[in-house]
Write a structure and sequence with these properties.
Layout: H1 2-17, H2 42-51, E1 57-69, E2 72-85, E3 88-98, E4 103-111, E5 114-118, E6 131-134, H3 141-146, H4 150-157, H5 161-164, E7 172-182, E8 185-195, H6 196-201, H7 209-217, E9 222-229, E10 235-243, E11 249-257
Antiparallel strand pairs: 1-2, 1-11, 2-3, 3-4, 4-5, 5-6, 7-8, 8-9, 9-10, 10-11
Helix pairs in contact: 1-4
Length: about 280
């Protein structure tokens, strides 16, 4: 059970780390004028996103990820809140994972560089201690599996950091910009093309060797994606429809709302945490 839970979360981590590597979703133009000055490069867009956002921020995130084909059929729905204060990230999120034959619900809390998972009732942990701790140096099964991915989990929880590693290389080209809307909010939609060969060769890419090998094995040379940016240069939506091999794909839609809204995040108490074998 713990291995399947870890595999499900790795799907989420991998998709989050590839938010700048996807096929753009269809969407109509809202008409009207552009909201802001057009950015010539994707790097300039990311710098504008960072420059218009305070060092301390908070946001609500919701979305879906689906993996279909190649022996995998997994659907993940997630919703949560995150904030960064004094350079430290905190996040809490709820996940519903449906593999077709099994449905799991979980919770995650990130507090700095440590993560906590609230496991399903059938995961074999005591009902009064449903949480487990994951740390980069942990020796239990989940920490060994997910500990090395914590940095990517943190980056994917930060809408700006999720694509920041692309700002100073030439792997991304803006194909076009047009006015659109996200949930009734005016936005600029950027459609971009990614040179996957250049992306994988960049020292700035945060993908693991396993993820790099998977992309290479799939034979993907170029990809497209779409990013929606508000008048204040805040990300509102990121979409992806990424083929994996000839018969499989990963789709993702992430939306960011409630920027600046007060968020309270609390890590589980020690008496709610189960120590896993090997820890």
């Amino acid at each position: 059970m713990l291995r399947r839970i870890g595999a499900g979360l790795l799907v989420l981590v991998a998709a989050g780390s590839m938010t700048a590597c996807g096929k753009s979703a269809n969407g109509g133009s809202a008409g009207g004028d552009r909201l802001a000055v057009q950015h010539v490069t994707f790097g300039q867009l990311i710098q504008a996103m960072a420059g218009k956002t305070k060092a301390d921020w908070s946001a609500h995130t919701a979305g879906t990820i689906t993996v279909d084909g190649a022996g995998q059929n997994v659907a993940i729905k997630f919703t949560g809140d995150s904030k960064k204060t004094a350079g430290s990230l905190q996040m809490q999120a709820e996940y519903a994972i449906d593999s077709g034959t099994e449905q799991l619900t979980m919770s995650m809390v990130i507090d700095g560089h440590v993560a906590y998972l609230k496991l399903p009732a059938n995961a074999g942990v005591p009902a009064n201690k449903p949480w487990v701790k994951i740390s980069p140096d942990g020796t239990d099964q989940l920490s060994k599996q997910l500990g090395p991915q914590l940095e990517q989990i943190e980056r994917s929880a930060d809408p700006r950091q999720a694509v920041s590693y692309l700002q100073d290389n030439d792997a991304v080209t803006i194909k076009g910009v047009r006015p659109d809307q996200v949930g009734g909010t005016a936005a600029d939609r950027y459609d971009v093309a990614i040179d996957v060969t250049k992306l994988l060769a960049s020292n700035h890419v945060t993908l693991t060797d396993q993820q790099r090998q998977a992309v290479t094995a799939a034979g993907i040379k170029s990809l497209d994606e779409s990013v929606w940016i508000s008048r204040d240069s805040l990300p509102l939506r990121v979409t992806m429809d990424q083929p994996v091999g000839a018969k499989a794909f990963v789709k993702m839609n992430m939306e960011f709302t409630d920027w600046g809204k007060k968020v309270t995040i609390s890590a589980p108490s020690s008496d709610e945490i189960t120590a896993l074998p090997g820890g």
